[in-house]
Write a structure and sequence with these properties.
Chain lengths: 317, 490, 218
């Protein structure tokens, strides 16, 4: 775990995640369709949807201004920055670990994701529509419950590694595979609950619906169109794969620590396999449960909170 | 001799099993009386042996010392009195249609099982056996509390079984901790690490911190079963809804058995942590019980609920006595256990009569008891005077002893509060009893026709009550003194 | 089995036990709570077996087997039968809201760790985290019993609490003597039977849930 990640590799990982994001969504949709005995669209369908959006024009509400137009770009930028921080193929402290900027830091990652969420919500409010406001308020309520739990989970894992640098954590865990201890079981469970919340899937939110009253994320996207919507949808796909990669970095790391081409290919294959497992998990959960009513969400999320809390307690006490 | 300890709880079990196959009601009563008499005789023999030889031990499961003898005597006496009282009571219940004939075997067998589990509880040397028997008493008595199967009975039975089972879980937890402390001091889990005699002998070697935490769990746990406040919520419900002879056993004997458990752990805690800790806790719970029970006694309308809250108060007084400690305080606690048990059973018998005669437990409806049933009415007045703490009855003596111990120990505030509550309750009880006893009964109330068995049972208990109020017979005095010494670990 | 492996296994089992306890606390439907307590009993039996294998104590194996048979299979089956007879499915909103219950549970865990540090002298090295987990399980079982209005959920809380006590006993003294353990299990069985009978009786005669009766006051 000696050398820092070269810049090129970090940017390459970011590009990889952004490009693969829609593919993961496509796979999950296909799995769900299969489970529901349908054929389903192809796994490349999200890409087609994205390119379609690029060709369309922008329609905007009268009350929205230039800030509304800037929001999608900012959200996509924030999410891509988060994507750069997650170790995918190569696990070691980020480039410039000795530099004043905390690159590769897990808390910074959470901060980028939170920024993206905040900007989406504000953009929705800016449009002045009722659905945007409702979606934004619901999203923020979920955020208050989700963000602290994310922090707790990250803390419980980073206590062992002694640092919040994601690359270092992943490298540390890869080397000591046997240290998956008792608190990690609870933290993993909490993280899986969070995965459902952050990716906006059942039972937290229904990504397939466009009924105003039943959606959180889609409500905020309602007013956007054309390239703006492209940015936001791409950011959503990227966020999904970034959170999945975060789960893997914290709990399922088997990431090689060298930049040899063979090692990188191996790392890519391992990443793909683990992501597939998580995708199957998400598809199964989505097909087995119904969406929770909104006022029951705090109960569901507090189960995650208690698990994370217990994980930290078991670690520290 | 040690085989006696095994036979003693088996007697009610055997009789109970026999009763399951009986149909004739008179045979039930005969078997009941026989069981009670046999138990009584055995208890006397055990008492004699213990006083002569010091203590009896049987295979690390049972043991009998002076403390055991006190409780055995109480259970045997109340068992006998209840058996006599049930004769007339059951006749009335069956005639009135409250209890069906075909359920009689279940009732009598359950009562015998209940008595057997109580005997095992006080005979237990192994703390685990003590716990198991306590849970056994909960199960058997819960079935008895809900025997009538009406809505209130079942509600009371459910609250009883849930609350006491929660409490007893805490008690088990405390037992585990004490066992762990003993095993640790013995260097590994040794046989006998759960036996009270072993633990008490080496109490000073136990880790005080662990025993402290264990005792806290035990006093909360077994205190729930004993009816100490604030864990007493189930008591008025259960003791009022149960059939009256069962209420007498519950209030008179069962809550004392829970106190037995506390006393055993008190001895251990005294040895391990010094006398201050457990004494202070007992004092606190006792005082809270006395204070909490008082307003409910004053504002009560249901006769048996009144008696239930009264039991809470008196259990508090026993805890006070134990908490004040010292030879006088502990002696007073044991004496009070006997006195209250006898008196409370007497008054529950009277209440059963009143319920049968007036058809209601509401004290506002019970009037002119002395005229309707002269004997029972007299016993009502005697019992009420005794419960209130008036001389020359037994409770006065034990309360006075607690008072003396408290003053000698310098606990003036505690004694002041205690006295204030006792005075208030005195006034309240006399007021209630007077309203019930005097005046003219309603037209519809049946006059006279008191069952001889009921009068006999009440008379027996009243005689004991009076006797203990006038003097403590030397034999009993020796037993109580010895029990005090055992508890204080000298 | 080496002590280190045993400690790691028992630590992992402890975490899973806490997880099942969370499921019981947050269970919306009755049968989920029952399955969770059955899973919990299986884990307890496993822990007993692990400890028995490490210390070569036959008693622990026997207790593990009994726990498996009785508390993982027989008692949950009994509860499920009562449910089917009575026909309840949904838990009514409990006395304390679920979110608050979970918050209290978090506090209980902290309390349990604090308590177990005071009990450090008797804590056995081999069982690792078992003592605070056992204390937490016991107290959380009591929390379930006190905060629920459904009689059967109260019984589930009772079983969970007994599981916790057994785990604690394992943690401080390699379990209690065999006779006592058997006696405790017998008591739990009898208690469960009596409670089940009461629930059925009240359902059939009063058509209400027994834990909701609250006419007796004052």
């Amino acid at each position: 775990m000696g050398r820092a990640t070269p810049w090129a590799l970090a940017l390459g990982q970011m590009a990889l995640l952004v490009l693969l994001g829609p593919l993961v969504t496509g796979v999950i949709q296909k799995l769900k369709a299969r489970l529901q005995c349908r054929r389903g669209a192809g796994i490349l369908q999200p890409y087609r949807d994205l390119t379609k959006l690029l060709r369309k024009g922008t329609v905007q509400a009268d009350t929205a201004g230039s800030f509304f137009r800037a929001v999608p770009v900012a959200v996509l930028a924030a999410t891509c920055a988060a994507a750069a921080l997650v170790p995918v193929l190569f696990a070691s402290p980020a480039a410039g670990a000795a530099s004043p900027l905390p690159l590769g830091d897990a808390i910074l990652l959470l901060g980028w994701l939170a920024l993206g969420r905040f900007l989406t919500a504000v953009g929705a409010l800016d449009a002045g529509g009722a659905f945007g406001g409702m979606g934004a308020s619901r999203e923020m309520t979920v955020a208050t419950l989700v963000e602290p739990v994310l922090m707790l989970v990250v803390f419980s894992v980073s206590v062992v590694a002694g640092t919040t640098d994601l690359g270092a954590i992943a490298g540390h865990l890869s080397l000591q595979r046997g240290s998956f201890g008792a608190p990690d079981i609870l933290a993993l469970f909490a993280m899986l609950v969070l995965l459902l919340a952050e990716t906006g899937r059942i039972p937290v939110d229904n990504p397939d619906t466009h009924l105003e009253l039943t959606m959180l994320h889609e409500g905020m996207l309602l007013e956007h169109s054309g390239p703006g919507l492209f940015c936001l949808v791409l950011a959503h796909h990227t966020k999904q794969i970034v959170v999945m990669a975060l789960v893997q970095a914290l709990f399922l790391p088997w990431i090689p620590a060298s930049t040899a081409l063979f090692a990188l290919a191996l790392g890519l294959g391992a990443f793909a396999a683990r992501t597939l497992v998580l995708a199957i998990f998400l598809a199964l959960v989505e097909s087995s449960y119904a969406k929770l009513r909104f006022f029951r969400l705090p109960q569901f999320l507090s189960i995650g909170f208690l698990s994370a809390f217990l994980a930290v307690a078991l670690r520290l006490l | 001799m040690t085989t006696l300890l095994w036979i003693l709880p088996l007697v009610p079990v055997a009789f109970g099993l026999a009763m399951l196959g009986v149909r004739d009601r008179r045979l039930f009563h005969a078997l009941d009386l026989a069981s009670a008499s046999a138990t009584g005789v055995l208890v006397v023999i055990v008492a004699r042996t213990v006083m002569r030889d010091g203590s009896l031990r049987a295979a690390g499961v049972f043991a009998a010392d002076a403390v055991t003898v006190v409780f055995l005597g109480l259970i045997a006496l109340l068992g006998l009195a209840t058996a006599i009282y049930t004769i007339g009571w059951m006749r009335r219940e069956v005639a009135g249609g409250d209890i069906e004939e075909r359920r009689l075997p279940a009732y009598f067998a359950l009562v015998q099982a209940f008595l057997a589990t109580m005997l095992v509880t006080v005979l237990a040397d192994n703390l685990g056996v003590l716990w198991i028997a306590m849970e056994g008493t909960t199960i058997t008595s819960a079935l008895l509390v809900g025997f009538r199967r009406d809505r209130y009975g079942l509600e009371a039975a459910w609250k009883y079984i849930i609350v006491t089972t929660i409490g007893i879980s805490f008690g088990l937890f405390g037992t585990v901790l004490v066992y762990a402390a003993t095993a640790h001091a013995l260097g590994g889990a040794a046989a006998g690490a759960m036996n009270f005699t072993t633990i008490a002998a080496m109490a000073h070697r136990l880790d005080p911190g662990i025993v402290r935490i264990g005792f806290i769990f035990v006093i909360v746990g077994y205190g729930t079963k004993a009816g100490l406040a604030p864990m007493h919520m189930w008591l008025p419900d259960a003791h009022s809804q149960a059939p009256s002879p069962v209420s007498a056993l519950l209030s008179g004997a069962l809550i004392k058995c829970a106190l037995f458990g506390i006393i055993r752990f008190h001895t251990i805690a005294r040895g391990a942590c010094g006398p201050a800790f457990s004494g202070r806790l007992l004092l606190l719970f006792g005082l809270v019980s006395v204070v909490v029970a008082t307003p409910f006694i004053l504002t009560q309308r249901d006769l048996k609920r009144l008696l239930g809250y009264h039991s809470v108060e008196h259990v508090g007084i026993v805890a006070l006595g134990l908490g004040i400690g010292g030879p006088v305080g502990t002696y007073a606690a044991f004496l009070h256990i006997l006195n209250h048990g006898v008196t409370k059973a007497l008054v529950f018998f009277v209440a059963g009569d009143a319920l049968g005669r007036y058809g209601s437990r509401d004290m506002g409806r019970i009037r002119g008891f002395l005229r309707a049933a002269p004997f029972a009415g007299t016993f009502l007045m005697l019992g009420a005077f005794s419960l209130a703490g008036m001389p020359p009855f037994s409770i006065f003596v034990s309360e006075l002893l607690v008072l003396r111990a408290g003053i000698a120990a310098g606990r003036y505030v505690t004694i002041a509060i205690f006295l204030a509550m006792v005075v208030v309750i005195f006034a309240g009880l006399i007021h209630h009893a007077g309203k019930m006893a005097f005046g003219e009964p309603d037209e519809a109330v049946r006059r006279g026709g008191e069952a001889l068995s009921g009068v006999l049972a009440m008379g027996l208990l009243a005689a004991v009550m009076l006797l203990l109020g006038l003097t403590v017979p030397p034999g009993l005095d020796r037993i109580l003194t010895r029990a005090t010494e055992v508890t204080l670990g000298s | 089995m080496s002590p280190e492996l045993a400690t790691r296994l028992i630590d992992a089992l402890g975490a899973l036990l806490l997880f099942t306890m969370i499921l019981i606390l947050a269970a919306g439907q009755l049968y989920r709570a029952i399955y969770a307590v059955a899973a919990q009993s299986v884990l307890i039996a496993l822990a007993g077996a692990v400890l028995g294998a490490t210390t070569h104590n036959l008693d622990l194996w026997i207790v593990a087997g009994i726990t498996l048979l009785v508390k993982a299979i027989a008692l949950p089956w009994l509860l499920l039968r009562v449910i089917r007879r009575v026909g309840i499915r949904r838990e009514i909103e409990p006395v304390v809201p679920i979110t608050a219950t979970l918050a209290i549970a978090g506090g209980i865990v902290v309390l349990a760790f604090h308590l177990s540090s005071s009990l450090g002298a008797v804590r056995q090295a081999i069982t690792g985290n078992a003592l605070p987990v056992g204390i937490a399980l016991t107290l959380m079982g009591v929390l379930v019993m006190m905060s629920r209005r459904e009689a059967l959920t109260q019984m589930v809380g009772l079983f969970a609490s007994e599981n916790g006590i057994f785990f604690t006993a394992m943690a401080v003294s390699q379990g209690m003597p065999l006779i006592i353990e058997i006696g405790v299990v017998l008591d739990v069985i009898l208690g469960a039977l009596v409670m089940g009978v009461m629930v059925l009786r009240v359902r059939s005669s009063v058509d209400a849930d027994i834990a909701e009766l609250d006419r007796l006051r004052g």
